[in-house]
Amino acid sequence: MTEPAPEVQWGVELDSRRRGFRQVLDGAGCDAGLVFGCDGHAQHFRYLTNFTPVLGDSWLLLAGELACFLTFPWQIVEAIGRSGIERWDAAINPIPLVVEALRQARPKRLGVAGVERMPAPAWRALMEGLPGVDLVDVGAGLAKLRRRKSPLEVDRLRAAARLTDSMLDAGRAGVHAGVSESVLAARLSTLALESGGACAFATTVVSGTEHPVPIRMPSTRRFEPGDTVMIDLGAEVDGYQADASRTFVLGRPSLPQRKAWDVVLAAYEAAVALARPGVPCRDLHRAASGIIEAAGYKVAHRAGHGIGLATSYEWPSLDTEEAPLEPGVTICIEPGVYFPGAGNMKLEDDFLITESGCEALTTSERGLELTL
Q1: Is there a cis peptide before residue 73, judged by omega within 30 degrees of 0?
Q2: What is the pTM of this model?
Q3: What is the CATH number of domain 6-145?
């Protein structure tokens, strides 16, 4: 059977998403919706339009017809093609355009998503420009729609995970004495671009065994024999982002390095064993952190989070979310130990929750020791 053309697939997908959001609006008693996005935090907007501007704010209005407003007009032709929405406009300050469109639509109760990132002047302009209109935050309802990934979304995440594996494999091959953190990070980031993808976030390479911190920007420090080298990176394909980490020791691991790594492995395996439908998200964090604490180490961060159109900001946060995992949810599991003498020790992979358990999306080699 012939697969539908990509534009047909996206058309069906976007129609389904927009119907879901309209149901959220109906459930909140709203007769119109407004979705806001800004640089780095436009996931709601992208979810409903299949488009994110390179720069500036973005607004989607659902009130009868669909309309979008941007800060810059440069990408409107692309935006129309990707979204199937014909009405786009742009201005350095698009708020007056948004308010005027809403005045013409004359809603009584407006559901707004993206309030937490909206600048105060924009919110004030809505309040003052739409007297008598009730403004309701419906962001949580839209976020809930994004929890379970569709087959199309899973396909994009698989592609991002495959590219992430290739980057991690290149990282393993590229760790040699004399190479700097920043040079290796640049090479891995370039690989993502050369392969037709992008970096989900700035590639992190941290080396050494003293003064470990969970994450920092790569430095000019050059790798030395005995170093712990932690690589944390992710590829992005069509807006969907993977996130994975590997840790290496350049040469034979010392006792502190081996001990810390064994704890990380045990914490990772304990969390993965719980990654199945019906298990409260927070149980994965509790299992991993319990092992880390029992070994005498400090729990430096949560044991994982969601992946999708974002990484760190994607639902769920495994340390706080009590809701159960469901089929179609995509997460990363990333326990870590950061200890002087051992350095940065972290193992991170991406998983799809299935009907009966979980499927690893990133699968690159996890071994610790590298030959000098």
Answers
A1: no
A2: 0.94
A3: 3.40.350.10
